[in-house]
Amino acid sequence: MNGFFSLAELGHYSLVLALALSLVQATVPLWGAAKRDSRLIRVATATSLAGFFYIVFAFGALVVAYVVSDFSVANVWENSHSAKPMLYKVTGVWGNHEGSMMLWVLILSLFGALVAIFGGNLPETLKARVLAVQAWIGSAFLLFILLTSNPFIRLDPAPAEGQDLNPILQDIGLAVHPPFLYLGYVGFSIAFSFAAAALIEGRVDAAWARWVRPWTLTAWLFLTLGIAMGSYWAYYELGWGGWWFWDPVENASFMPWLAGTALLHSAVVMEKRGALKIWTILLAILTFSLSLLGTFLVRSGVLTSVHAFATDPTRGVFILGILVLFIGGSLALFAWRAPSLRQGGLFAPVSREGALLYNNLFLVAATATVFAGTLYPLALEAVNGEKISVGAPFYNLTFAPLMVPILMAVPFGPMLAWKRGDLLGAAQRLAFAMVAAIVAVAVTLVLTGAEGALAPFGIGLGVWLIAGALNELLDRSGITRGNFKHALPRFFGLPRAAFATAIAHAGLGVTVIGIIATTAYQTETIRSLKPGESLEAAAYTLTYQDVVPRTGPNYREEVFRIVVTRDGKAVTAVAPTKRFYAARQMATTESAIKTFWFSQLYVSIGDLHDDGSVTVRAYYKPLVTLIWLGTLVMAIGGVVSLSDRRFRIGAAKPARSARKGRAAEAGA
Amino acid sequence: MRRLAFAALAALLFLALSPALKPTGIAGTAFAVEPSEMLQDPNLEARARKLSEGLRCLVCQNQSIDDSNADLARDLRVLVRERIKAGDSDEQVKDYLVDRYGEFVLLRPVFDWTNLLLWGTPLIVLVIGGIVMAMRFRRTAASAEPKLSAEEEARLADLLEKDAAS
C-alpha cells in the first residue's frame, strides 16, 4: 500500500502540469501562426503529446487508487468497496462526478494527440490553430477539475472500508456506456476546433471538410453506439420495457447526435462541391456547443431541480461559465469572420446538395424541438416560477411529425445528381423501393387486421428506407437499367462511400421498423397469479410454478419460476426475481427477457399478496431488438465510410478514377 | 476488401459480445398498475391507463404515474379511477388534477400563450430555415451563369456525342 501512497499526489501534480502545458498550447501556437514562426508553431504538437501523457498518467493514478482500494483518497472511499468485483472497481472510476470529468479530459486530450500525430498533412498554421483551440477547451476543463472536482483529495485518517457503489450502477451496460458517450460528445470538439481554426485562419475549403469529416464520423459512430447502449440498459433495467423516455439526460446526448448527423451530411456537400461552407462551420460549432450543454445539464444538477442547482452552485456556475465562454466566443468569432469566407458551388433546389440541405433543415428543426422541450421548463421556472412538465406526449406531437418528411426523403437524396437533379427520374428509378414499401404496408394491414393505418404506414416507411438503400446500389451498378452484363463488377467497383451511405440508411430503416412495431403492436398482460395459474401473452402461455429462494454474492433473492408454453408445447422457462441487498438495505426487481427471433417476451414481477399470489407482468414486444440492431447497422455504415479510400492517410487523391479504371478492366 | 472484412468482423465481435450487455441486472424501480387497482369495466380501465400515461408522478424524475411505483403515483392512479367511476370525462379528470397539483402534473404542456414558444419551436425553425433557403436559391438563380445560346447548345451536343463515340 505504501508504494502507492504517493501516487495520488503524483496524479494530482501531473494534472497541474497538464494544465500548464495546455495553457502554453492554447497561446504560443496561435502567436506562432500569426507570426508564421515555425518553431512556435511546432510547440503545439509537442505540448499536446506531453499534455496527453500527463493526463494519462493522472487518470492511471486514479485507476490504480481504485484497483488497490486506497480509501485514503476521498473519491475512492465514496465510490468503491474492497469486495467489489475488479471490473466494477475499474469502471467505478467514471461512475461518479470527479472521475467522469477525468474521463472527459482524457478523451479530449486523446483526440488532440491524435490530431497532433496524424495531422502531418494539414497546413502548418491550421494544425497549430486547431490544437490551440483544443487546448482552450482542455484548459477550461482541467481548471474545472482542479478547482471544483478534484478526485485526488486525501482523507486523514484513511477509512478502513469504502462506501461502495450503488448496486444499480454495478452493471456492464452502465460500465461501458459512458466511455462511448464521451468519445462521441468530446469527439465533436475536433470539429469545433477545426471550425474555430478555420475562422481564425479566414480560409476554408473542400480539403478542410475532408479533414473534418472522418473526425465527425468517428465521434458520431461512438455517440450512436453510446446512445443505443443507454437505451438498451434502460429497457432491461427499469422494469417496464420502455426504451426511450425523453428524459432530459437522454435528450442531452440526443441533441448533439441530431446536430452531428446534420453536420455529417452538410460536410459531404462542402467536401464534394465546396458549397454550404459557412453553414457547415456553424453546424460544427453548434454540435459541440450542444455537447457542452449536455455536460452542463448532467453535471450541474440543474435537471433535478433548479433549487438543487442554486443551493450548491459552484460546479454548475463554473460549467455554465465554460458554456457561455465557448458558445458565446465561438459564435462571436463566427459573426465576425464568417462573412469574409467565400461561398462557392451553386446548385438548384432539386439536387443532391438541395436534398442534403433539406435533411439539415429538418434535423435542425428536430434538434431545436428537443432543445425547447428540455430547456423550456427550466427557463419558465427561472422567469416566473411556473412549473410545467414536458414528457413523451409532447415529443410524440412535435418530434415525430418532423421525422416523417425527412425519412420519406432519404432514398431520394443519393438518387439525385449534384448541382441539378431530376426528381421525377429519381422517383422512377426508385420504383422497386416504392413497390416494396407498398407491399409492406399491405402485409402489415392484413397481418394486424387493419386496425389503424398509422403503424402500417410507419412499417412501410422503414421498408422504404431499406429497399431504397438497396435500390440505390442496384441502380448505380446498372441493373435497373437492364445492364446485367457489367452489373456485378460494377457493383463491387462502387466506392465504399456508396456502400456506407446505403448501409447507414438501411440501418435507420431497421430501427424505424423496430420502433413502430414495438410501439404499435406490443401486448401487455398484468395479472395476479397463484402457483399453477397462468396468463396469456400474445401467442404464449405463462404458467407460474413456484417461488424459490436463492443467495447471491451480496444479495438474497426470490426466484419466480414461470414456464412458457406455446400451443400446449413447452418453449422455455423464465425466472424474474426480486432481490434484496442487505448492505444497502435495497430491494430491487430483475426482469426476465426471452428473445424469439427479433421479438422479445419481457416478464417482471410486481407486488406479492397475502394469499400467496403475485402480480406478473408479461409483455410481448414484436421486433423490439430491431431498434438496437438498426443502430448497430448505422454504426457499421459509419465504419465502412471511415474505411473509404479518400480518408486513408497518404491515399492519393484521385482514388475514384483509379477505381473506375479497375472496374472497367474487370468488366472487360 | 480487406477493410470491409475487418469491419464485418468487428461487427460480429460486437454482436458476439452483446450478450454481455444482457439482463444481468437489477431493475431499479418496479412498475405501476396492480391488478387490485384496476377497474372492472375494461373500457373505463383503458381510459384510465391512457390518462395515466400523460400524468406525471410528481415526486419522480420524468416518470408518468403509469410507470412509477411511488406511493404518490399509486394514490394518483386510484384517484384517476375514482374520478372516472364518478362519471368524469377525460378533460374533467385532468382539470381536477391540474386544480390540485398545478400544470406540473401534465406531461403534455398546455397549448397556451405561455407555452407558445415551446410548441412553436419546430414550426418557427422550419419556416425561418425555409425562407432563408428560398432567398438563397433566388439570389443564386439570379446570379447564375447566363443560358447557352442555341448555337452553343448545338456545339455542346456535338462535342458530347463525339466524346461518347470515342
Biggest beta sheet attributes of chain A? 6 strands, antiparallel
**Rg of chain B:** 31 Å
Spell out the helices and strands of chain B N to C: HHHHHH
CATH domain topology of the domain at 35-105 in chain B: Helicase, Ruva Protein, domain 3
Strand content of chain B: under 5%
Question: What profile does the largest beta sheet of chain B have?
Answer: none
Q: Round the Cα radius of gyration of chain A to an integer and report it.
A: 27 Å
Low-confidence stretches of chain A: 650-668
Task: Give the end-to-end Cα distance of chain A, rounded to a whole number of Å.
Answer: 72 Å
The top-level CATH class of the domain at 35-105 in chain B is: Mainly Alpha
The 3D shape of chain A can be described as globular
Helix content of chain A: 55-70%
Structural class of chain A: alpha+beta
Oligomeric status of the shown chains?
heterodimer
Describe this structure in words.
By secondary structure, chain A is α+β, with helices and mostly antiparallel strands. Among the domains of chain A are: 170 residues, no CATH class; 133 residues, no CATH class; 99 residues. Helices cover 64% and strands 11% of the residues of chain A. In chain A, strand 6 and strand 7 form a beta hairpin. The longest helix of chain A has 33 residues. The radius of gyration of chain A is 27 Å and the shape is globular. The N and C termini of chain A lie far apart (72 Å). Chain B has 166 residues and is mainly α. Among the domains of chain B are: 71 residues, Orthogonal Bundle (Helicase, Ruva Protein, domain 3), CATH 1.10.8.640; 33 residues. Chain B contains 6 helices and no strands. In chain B, helix 2 packs across helix 3. The radius of gyration of chain B is 31 Å and the shape is elongated. The two termini of chain B are 32 Å apart. The N terminus of chain B is likely disordered. At the A-B interface, helix 8, helix 9, helix 14, helix 15 and strand 1 of A face helix 1 and helix 5 of B.
